[in-house]
Design goal:
The complex is a heterodimer of chains A (306) and B (118). With 306 residues, chain A is an all-alpha fold. Chain A has two domains: 59 residues; 238 residues, no CATH class. Chain A is built from eleven helices and no strands. The longest helix of chain A has 34 residues. Chain A starts with a helix and ends with a helix. Chain B is an alpha+beta fold. Chain B has one domain: Winged helix-like DNA-binding domain superfamily/Winged helix DNA-binding domain (Arc Repressor Mutant, subunit A), CATH 1.10.10. Chain B is 51% helix and 16% strand. In chain B, a hairpin with a 2-residue loop joins strand 2 and strand 3. The chains are: A mainly alpha (306), B alpha+beta (118).
């Protein structure tokens, strides 16, 4: 087999299995026919079209042909990952004083927050949509209430740390309620063991590694230059992740955005008012606008189906 | 001069190619290229994505399959549903062309006016 044929076969593997079984042989035969006529098949263009076409088919086939449903389910999975992480951090806050031998008084608030995050995760991951979202809303409000003093101490109510510590946790349930698929999201059994292991690993890793300090100076010019390769890498990763399941690609994009935002806050807190202003605008305008648009779409879809 | 593009929706071009006769993948590619005077060359990924979608929506169907030299050739046929969609789209395009033509014919020539003194 020629190298180019092998490349075509590899590129075809990007397509979902059912599509490959239906059209794979036919597509290779068409390519062979193009070559037989002496025309140049423009290998790079054809391979690129197979990669993008295959990816598109995966997006379409993951939710019965609806891109919006794929995105909504992906966002729901991303929210689940963030809730799981929040639960891990809450448990960590609770047991760190014991592990490190600090004299902090035992806090009932921290205990109820930890239990709340865990309950919200369990309810949502097992498909109990209404209860899960209600618990998530209550816990997020409690979390925001607990964090508001801390967040204010970073630099006032219009600073990025305040926005990220107060605004996002309260908006998250709103966004989740808007995008959450009406049938709920039920994760398969294989998701639970790694999730539990990761959650259990947070406290010991935190104790062993100590507080995280970035070795890089995240100055604005360096950050701007770094954004291009980082963005390209993210797009590439999303492409590769979506070959397994596009919904995980959406979830990955959401999680990485929140983590990236928090990393920025850690390194830039209050140092650049212009940049903070831009990011706050994005968060205070774009996030609610996206939530409202999704909610409107949902109402419209429900009306048209009725 | 501004370069304008003839409608390039691949679904429309594939339906137009199948309106005359049943064609297989390579035949459709060549027909689309000829229809568009070489402006549109469907890549493999685009073509089969469109064919799959049109089969799913019932606009086209598989007419027959044959093997030549061990290679699979699957011929596609335009269904009545597909023909109706194509007719509707065609009427829309014709209306657009007529409106544009009438707009151009009733267009007043631009008159060069002297600059007013400020």
């Amino acid at each position: 087999m020629r190298i180019v044929d092998r490349l075509y076969s590899l590129a075809l593997r990007v397509y979902p299995q059912t599509f490959r079984e239906e059209h794979g042989e036919e597509m290779l035969a068409t390519l062979a026919e193009v070559r037989d006529t002496g025309e140049s098949p423009h290998h790079l263009r054809q391979i690129a079209s197979l990669l993008f076409g295959g990816n598109r088919q995966r997006w379409l086939s993951s939710s019965n042909g609806s891109l919006v449903t794929t995105v909504r389910q992906g966002l729901a999975w991303g929210v689940l990952v963030l809730v799981a992480r929040q639960a891990g951090l809450a448990v960590n806050d609770l047991i760190q004083p014991f592990l490190r031998g600090w004299d902090d008084p035992f806090s009932l608030t921290y205990l109820s927050l930890a239990l709340g995050w865990i309950a919200a995760f369990c309810l949502l991951a097992s498909g109990r949509r209404r209860w899960g979202l209600a618990v998530l809303a209550i816990v997020a409000c409690g979390f925001a209430y607990e964090s508001v003093q801390l967040a204010l101490s970073y630099g006032g109510p219009f600073s990025l740390p305040f926005t990220l510590h107060f605004f996002l946790p309260t908006v998250l349930p709103l966004l989740a309620a808007c995008v959450w698929p009406s049938r709920g999201v039920k994760l398969s059994a294989w998701f639970w063991p790694p999730a539990l292991v990761l959650a259990a690993l947070v406290p010991p890793i935190s104790v062993l590694s100590g507080p995280f300090e970035s070795p890089f100076a995240f100055a604005f010019p360096i950050l701007s230059i770094a954004l291009v390769p980082v963005g390209a890498l993210l797009v590439l990763t999303m492409l590769v992740v979506s070959w397994s399941d596009p919904r995980w690609a959406v979830a990955f994009a959401l999680v990485i955005t929140v983590f990236g935002g928090q990393a920025l806050v850690t390194s830039l807190a209050g140092s650049d008012p212009v940049q903070n202003g831009l990011q706050i605008t994005a968060l205070w305008i774009v996030v609610p606008a996206a939530a409202i648009m999704l909610a409107r779409y949902r109402v419209r879809a429900a009306t048209s189906s009725a | 001069m501004t370069e304008l593009h003839f409608p390039r929706d691949p679904s429309l071009l594939v339906l137009a190619a199948l309106a005359r006769e049943d064609l297989h993948g390579y035949g459709i590619m060549k027909d689309v290229e000829a229809q568009s005077e070489g402006r549109v060359r469907l890549a493999l990924g685009t073509l089969y994505g469109v064919l799959d979608r049109l089969v799913q929506t019932g606009a086209i169907e598989v007419a027959r399959e044959e093997r030549r030299g061990g290679r699979l050739r699957r011929y596609y046929r335009l269904t009545e549903t597909g023909a109706d969609s194509l007719r509707r789209e065609l009427e829309l395009q014709i209306r657009l062309i007529e409106i544009t033509r009438s707009n151009l014919e009733s267009r007043k020539p631009a008159i060069a006016r002297p600059l007013e003194a400020s």
